[in-house]
Amino acid sequence: MKKDSHIHWYPGHIAKAERQLKEKLNLCDVVIEVLDARIPYSSMYNNIETLLGGKPRLILLNKSDLTDRHELNLFIDSIKQSSNSPVLVTDAKNSKDLAPIVKKVLELAEPRIQAQMAKGLLRRPARVMVVGMPNVGKSSIINKLTKSSKTKIGAKAGVTRQQQWVRINKDLDLLDTPGIIPMRQDDQEAATKLAFVNSVSENAYDNQLVAQDLLNILSSKYEPNLKEYYKTETLDLLSIANSRNWIKSNAEPDIERTASLVLKDFRDGKMGRFILDEIKN
Ligand code: G4P
Q1: Is 37 within 8 Å of 64 (Cβ atoms)?
Q2: What is the pTM of this model?
Q3: What is the domain count for the chain?
Q4: Percent of the chain whose predicted confidence (pLDDT) is above 70
Q5: Which atom of ligand 1 is least distant from the CA of 157?
Q6: Which tens digits make up the pLDDT trace of 17-55?
Q7: Which residues form ligand 1's pocket by a CB distance below 6 Å?
Q8: Are both 89 and 170 inside the same structural domain?
């Protein structure tokens, strides 16, 4: 077994993903960057500003229903300041009204539209696309914005389809396929957190090591919640397997099944509402 929960990455994939993203970005006035609110910094692409080349971006802290809203509020100002971009909190799974997103995007696009009109061009709808790491909720947001069932919802990254613009209203067109930001490779801590939220292919890591890492990080901040949830005194996979009496036919505790349970419980928000990044000042 591997000694640490190292997340494997593939430089060729990253270069290709960046290239594809750049082609789409060239077509847009504004970009919506979707982050997972449980790991706001770890799900932000460190190269995004270079990639955008000065284009305005709106940041969405999505999956806010899986976080403590009070704790999340503390992140908003810090992210606004460090990114110099507006930030909205969203829950694309349950919310019906994403109108504040449209309003903010139009505000951000207006200077570019005005600049073109000043050159004598006719007014045209602003163009926006949604970008983010896998599984942060990009397709769900596109679906809600387009109010149609055209966009397939799923956790699989990298599904390419023909690009198509969808008219949201007379002033706004949305690219119907999201831009997938490749996993960051330089920061193993961030990569491990991305594995917690199912943003990394399962082939890139060892389930048991990542699940134990999750328990360690959660217990440093939320120990009482976790002990209460798993009804164990020690927060490790072995204790949880034993407390559930999950024993394999060879009489060994079923650690793999327990690891899958812990990751699923966290991803489904069953253990509680958590934020795993620390605020940067
Ligand atoms: P992606 O395009 O960025 O890869 O993400 P996608 O929209 O496919 O969403 C990935 C998963 O996250 C989906 O769950 C989706 O329902 C869920 N999701 C998206 N936004 C939110 C949110 O704000 N809160 C919560 N709790 N979940 C969200 P799934 O398990 O793949 O499908 P299902 O849950 O819809 O059955």
Answers
A1: yes
A2: 0.91
A3: 2
A4: 91
A5: 4
A6: 888 888 889 889 999 999 999 999 999 988 888 888 889
A7: 62-63, 65-66, 91-93, 132, 134-140, 153-155, 178
A8: yes
